[in-house]
Design brief:
about 450 residues; alpha/beta; TIM Barrel; 8-stranded parallel β-barrel; 9 helices
């Protein structure tokens, strides 16, 4: 009897834990509020599903996914941490070859999503559905919005407890019009925006969206939005420059629109190669938190962190900055210097050279990681490094990573182009190289 009672209690607890927590949007004289389980819920979210303990420490409460891959594990992990999930349904892109004139394929996609929604609709960590991500990127067939509508309507039929959203790549008036007229079952408009965040919320309102909205991705200036070298390499902000922009952008263009903006998801809560290995990730490949997270902590918690990450004032190569479009001669020796500060003066400084990415991807598509070029450095110190330019002509980047004793990382990189040696050039100076192990983790 005791065993049966224990089994009954266990089964009952499983059933209770599998019950949906209702989420809805409420409008009042003060604007829009997302209500979860009857309580106001403002999204302080992150795009990604790793480093959940760190998200809690910083004051985050939600994560965003882009597809149903590993959905069960991600939802369970979020629930275990007291977090919610904006569950992404990966609506196929025209730019990847999907044809929205193919009614059979469109119906198959809808049927596939019906199975997913039916499977996960009652998970207590579920917050809302993200119907597609940037389906408007490089597209021409507006029938995709009919497909988005069919998916959103299906969700309302199958799952009455969670609202729907769709995410665009930036914003223009045509997108707002098409979503309003072709996809009326979308409850929440969502937008991915980077350098244009300063004008995105006001434009969403100006272009006629009258409901709630979410900033579904935001972060540093995008690689398409920055100054480039003469050979076309985008110049990445340092972690210090990014940190400053994260703090100001959140306060000025997200939190200040709380009457209509019901929250946001910072990008990327993890690490990935996209143009560079550091451009969007808020963590290193080894899982270390980077400097911009201090600004998120201050924004979400309302106070400064006890231990600030290192901060970089400048990085130069051959006494020049990235905006100088630096050309080096193959196999010649050059000096790099970094100026930084750290609260506790206890840091490790690492220097690397990487080949420039040649990937032509867009919209966050997969890029292969790039290994470091080894055997170049004769000195790698805390404030400077000496290295020999690679033999092979081409575009490269010099990186510096500064890690404090708490594991927080500041970083910067500077692009340079190697010109080949000519027969008329004097012999390259010989230097004693400092070993750089093959097992050094990529940043």
């Amino acid at each position: 009897m005791k065993k049966l009672l224990t089994l009954f209690v266990l089964c009952s607890s499983i059933l209770v834990s599998a019950q949906a927590i209702p989420v809805r949007v409420v409008q009042s004289d003060h604007g829009f509020t997302l209500m979860r389980g009857g309580e106001p819920y403002y999204i302080r979210g992150a795009g990604g599903h790793d480093n959940l303990d760190e998200l809690l420490v910083l004051g985050g409460n939600s994560i965003r996914t882009w597809s149903a891959e590993d959905a069960g594990e991600i939802l369970d992990a979020a629930e275990a941490h007291g977090l919610t999930v904006m569950f992404g349904l990966w609506v196929q892109h025209e730019r990847h070859g999907f044809n929205y004139n193919d009614e059979t394929a469109v119906q198959a996609q809808l049927d596939h999503f019906r199975e997913i929604v039916t499977t996960y609709k009652d998970h207590p960590a579920l917050l809302l559905w993200g119907v597609g991500n940037e389906v408007d990127l490089f597209y021409s067939n507006t029938k995709v919005w009919d497909a988005v509508q069919d998916i959103a309507a299906m969700i309302h039929e199958v799952d009455p407890n969670h609202p729907t959203s769709t995410v665009t790549a930036g914003i223009d008036s045509t997108e707002i019009y098409l979503i309003k007229t072709r996809a009326p079952d979308i409850d929440i408009f969502a937008c991915n925006t980077y350098g244009d965040l300063y004008k995105t919320p006001s434009n969403i309102i100006k272009y006629g969206w009258e409901g709630p909205f979410i900033i579904a991705e935001w972060g540093p200036n995008g690689h398409w939005e920055v100054e480039k070298t003469e050979w076309g390499a985008p110049i990445e902000q340092t972690s210090t420059e990014k940190a400053e922009s994260y703090g100001s952008r959140y306060g000025n263009y997200i939190a200040s629109y709380r009457d209509q903006c019901i929250g946001s998801y910072v990008f990327l809560w993890g690490q990935k190669q996209e143009t560079t290995s550091t451009w969007y990730g808020l963590f290193t490949e080894g899982g270390n938190p980077t400097e911009p997270l201090d600004r998120l902590y201050a924004a979400w918690q309302g106070e400064e962190p006890m231990n600030a990450a290192p901060s970089i004032a400048s990085l130069t190569l051959d006494n020049r900055t990235a905006s100088n479009s630096i050309y080096l001669k193959a196999e010649d020796v050059y000096e790099a210097a970094v100026v930084f500060s750290d609260d506790r003066n206890d840091v490790d400084v690492d220097w690397f050279v990487y080949s420039e990415s040649t990937a032509q991807s867009a919209g966050g598509d997969f890029e292969d990681a790039i290994p470091p070029v080894l055997g170049l450095f004769s000195r790698r110190g805390d404030n400077s490094a000496r290295f020999r330019a690679p033999e092979e002509e081409g575009a490269y980047r010099l990186y510096v990573f500064i890690t404090d004793d708490a594991g927080k990382v500041a970083y910067a990189n500077i692009p340079f182009y190697v010109n080949p040696r000519l027969e008329s050039d004097p012999p390259a100076r010989s230097i004693r190289l400092k070993p750089q192990s093959l097992d050094i983790p990529a940043p």
